[in-house]
Amino acid sequence: MAENIDRDATVGSASESPLSLLLQLVLSPSKWDVVTILLVVVLYVAYRSAQKDQSTDAHLYANFIDKMKAKDQKVAIFYGSQTGTAGDFASRLLKDLRRMGISSTLLDPEDHDMKLLSNLKDIEDHLAIFVVATYGEGDPTDNARGLFDFLTEAETDEPIMEGLRFTVFSLGNKTYEHYNLMGRFVDKKMRELGGDLFFRRGEGDDDANIEDDFLAWREEFLDFMREKYNITAEHVGQLREYEQIVHDPAPAYSFIGEPHKLGSFRTQRPPFSNKNPYIGKITAHRELHTGGDRSCMHIELDIKDAKIKYSPGDHVAVQPVNNTRMVEQIGERLNIDLDTIVSLTATEDSCASKVNPFPCPSSYRTILSHYVDICALPRTNFLESMIEYCTEDSDKQELLRVTASGDAGRAAYNDFIRVSGRDVLDVLTALPSLMPPIDLVLEMLPRLQVRYYSISSSLRVCDNSIHITASTHDYITQTGRHGSGVTTSWLRSLQGKVGTDEARIPVYIRKSTLRPPLRCAIPIIMVGPGTGVAPFRAFIQDRHALKESGKMVGETRLYFGCRHKSEDFLYQEEMESYVEKDSLNLRVAYSRDQPEKIYVSDLLNEDGAEVWDLLNRQHAHFYVCGDAKAMAKDVHLMLLKIIQQHGERSLPDAEKFVKSLKQRGHYVVDAWS
Ligand code: NAP
């Protein structure tokens, strides 16, 4: 962020746009100067064109069907992506089809009217491909919400999709209860509406090896397409979606990390959103662990001037910045001047859905720092595109080996990339003769994604601030490489910079389904071991403030778990003070302070009769937050056991009880893996 803020001084603020300068000149004839006016007009045109929305020639066509017809496109690939993987898979399919000469287009459902989908069948040899991820508790991704709503509302007694050929690749994670729900839903609903499942649905499991799952499905799908579309020849070699323009001299305006609108980091104007994040100043940054070698950060962000409102349970999205040293190393390795300003613009025959893959014009430094994920494990299509840039045969052979199709190729890729945890810089280091053009690397790398954290404060208590509770998970790969999350390691690096302009982070609020009951008299049971406690700290603060203001507040019960009382009892003092003030019933499971493990589920079991009474008679709401892999599942099973034992119900009846709690929003899980 330091880089961005320093630049403000030289570029000028967006409030002093060339238009306002022009007005000043026209209104004060003493400064009348034709040359100056012309210059300002030219500058304004450049400024506006850089500010323009980045979706492609949308203004030329009324809708995507018209555009497909005009461009003779047969295949529409819709993607529902939250972290970028589905979007990446979709654009790889687009390139595969382009290589076969099947004209196709990539469509973000958020940008298009899904009611027009059924008109796709008017296009000869059409095909709709849905590459959709399931997010959270079986939800569609944010950008596929419109697609989901449209399909949900479509009446199955009207076969509006009759004759429409489609296929689905769905992405999910087996750790979660609703595995691949979105993809399965799209498949089922499209068929119910008369659609023709042209090729079998594929499924990818992010808990295992989703790249492998995708590659296996893709190989089969492409063979099928070759046969059905009678493909006899295919393009070999590089297919580029974007071409690079180097701006020399540098333009007056260029992006400095803004996700969407040029100048939005220089002049901050509400409302703040994913396209216009607020740059919050870190006012506090401290370690929560009091012992041991692990770390959990407590961070406070000032939102005084932002007019940002949030509710307990909401998430804050943080737009991260890549490691400066790593950016420098990539610049050195590829022998580029990081301050060169460039634009990557869709080529004439590009099928990309955006004019630019990221905000342009930008310097290489900005792109590598803010827009592309340099820590992601490179996928096979990235490695394939690198082959022709190896000058040594041994490097070329290595890339051919790890990108070969079939089981052997997939196993080699797994060893070279996944097991070793190699990122793009590691690949460049492992293959010394590889010297790809930087613009190809930038085109191929996935976009850097925001990271969501449960807000751990309540506005009722922490007016003007957002609190984040984030544990840093450093890891060592099987081959001994050190790794850590992009966002948490960046946040950690800001610890010693509080109070300086560098300690500023772009954020926006994302609404959540995890909410305390509207009527605070309703009791709540919260289960949040480790960092899972974050949203519950907000709940506790909120309900305590309501109680202090004279409201009738029901029981607020927290099941917290940590390894050792003396090490990782997050917010111990604060929690104990709420207990003293009678605002909290706190139960803590110390898992490693005695020979046998004690977990939150064990404490729930001990309190079984009370838990049942709270749920059954007092209509308490039940919340779980934290690890999805084991904890949330174990808690779920324990809940079923408690209902059976203390509610004297059979297992199917206990399951029905839990289902009903969930349907009424009285049992909410916010878990991650
Ligand atoms: P943590 O300190 O790892 O765990 C908190 C407590 O929960 C510990 O006492 C732990 O005990 C206990 N626990 C372990 N398994 C349990 C189970 N099945 N039921 C109940 N309690 C259990 O907590 P954390 O650092 O917040 O991390 C929790 C999990 O979330 C980790 O798996 C971590 O990888 C994941 N995580 C993911 C992200 C992300 O962004 N994806 C971020 C943070 C954390 P023992 O350790 O003694 O078994």
Short description:
Helix content is 36%, strand content 18%. The longest helix has 19 residues, at 210-228.
Largest sheet: 7 strands, mixed
Low-confidence stretches: 1-27, 45-56
Overall pLDDT, averaged? Answer: 90
Helix content: 25-40%
Helix-strand category: alpha/beta
Number of helices: 22
C-alpha Rg (nearest Å): 27 Å
| Oligomeric status | single chain
Q: What are the distinct ligands in this entry?
A: NADP nicotinamide-adenine-dinucleotide phosphate
Roughly how many Å apart are the termini? 29 Å
Strand content: 15-25%
Q: Could you give the count of β-strands?
A: 23
| Outline type | globular
Describe this structure in words.
The structure is a single chain. By secondary structure, the protein is of the alpha/beta class. Helix content is 36%, strand content 18%. It has 22 helices and 23 strands. The structure holds NADP nicotinamide-adenine-dinucleotide phosphate.
What are the key terms here?
binds NADP nicotinamide-adenine-dinucleotide phosphate; 18% strand; alpha/beta; 673 residues; globular; disordered N terminus; 23 strands
Secondary structure blueprint with pairings:
Elements: H1 2-11, H2 18-27, H3 34-51, H4 64-70, E1 75-80, H5 85-99, E2 104-107, E3 127-135, E4 139-140, H6 145-153, E5 165-172, H7 181-192, E6 196-197, E7 202-205, H8 210-228, E8 242-246, E9 278-287, E10 295-302, E11 315-318, H9 324-333, E12 341-346, E13 362-363, H10 364-371, H11 380-386, H12 393-403, H13 406-419, H14 424-430, H15 438-444, E14 451-454, E15 465-472, E16 475-476, E17 482-483, H16 486-493, E18 504-510, E19 524-527, H17 534-548, E20 556-562, H18 572-580, E21 585-590, H19 600-606, H20 608-616, E22 621-627, H21 631-646, H22 651-663, E23 667-672
Parallel strand pairs: 1-2, 1-3, 3-5, 5-6, 5-7, 19-20, 19-22, 20-21, 22-23
Antiparallel strand pairs: 3-4, 8-12, 9-10, 9-18, 10-15, 11-14, 11-18, 12-13, 16-17
Residues 471, 473, 529-532, 561-563, 568, 591-592, 597, 599-601, 626-627, 630-631, 634, 672 line the site of NADP nicotinamide-adenine-dinucleotide phosphate (NAP).
